[in-house]
Amino acid sequence: MNITDIDELLELDEKEITITIKGSDCNIYYSDSSEQIDYLNQNIDLKDEQIMFLKGKIKEIQNIILAIISLQEKLEEATRKIDAMEKNLIEKRMIKIVLETSIEESTEIIKNIAPTYNYKLQDLYKKRIKHFKNSLYNNQQEIEEFETSLIALNEEKKKLHEDMINIKKIYI
Q1: What does the H/E/C string look like for the chain?
Q2: Per residue of the chain (172 residues), what is the pLDDT tens digit?
Q3: Angular region, 32: left φ>0, alpha ψ -120 to 50, beta rest
C-alpha cells in the first residue's frame, strides 16, 4: 500500500488506524479483523498544512475521548448518588409505615412498595419492638416512682391527720 496523498489517507476510515507523526515522517498502524496489527512505515510526503491538519484532528479526537471519559465518570457518580438516595427514601418510607401502622398492615404495604426490602422488615420490627419495650420500661419506672410518691404522700397525710387529732385533743 503506497499512500501519497492526504485524501487517500483519509479514505482508510474503513479500518482502525493509528497515526504517529514526527516531522514529515508518518507511521501508520492499521488493524484488520483477520490479522494482527500490521505496521506500515512509509515516508509520506505530506505538506506542512496537511501535517498540521492531521495533528489538529488527532488533538480533537483526544479531547473528545477525554470529554467522554469525564462525562462517563460524572454519570456513574450521579447514578450512584441517585441509587443511594432512592434506597434511603424507600427505607425511610418503610420505617414511617412500620411506626405508623400495625405489623400486619405494614407488612402488606411494604411488600407492595419494595419487595426487595423485605429482609429489612425484621430489623424494622426489632427496632419497633425495642422502642416499645423502652417506652414500656420508662412508663413502668414512672409508674413505680408515682406509686412511691403516692405511698409517701399517704404516709404524710396520715401523719398530718394524726397531728390534727392531737391538736384537737389538746385544744378541746
Answers
A1: CCCCCHHHHHHHHHCEEEEEEECCEEEEEEECCCCCCEEEEECCCCCHHHHHHHHHHHHHHHHHHHHHHHHHHHHHHHHHHHHHHHHHHHHHHHHHHHHHCCHHHHHHHHHHHCHHHHHHHHHHHHHHHHHHHHHHHHHHHHHHHHHHHHHHHHHHHHHHHHHHHHHHHHHC
A2: 444 445 555 554 455 555 555 555 555 555 553 333 344 444 555 667 777 787 888 888 888 888 888 888 888 888 888 878 877 777 777 777 666 766 667 666 666 665 555 566 666 666 766 777 777 777 778 878 878 888 888 888 888 878 778 777 776 5
A3: beta
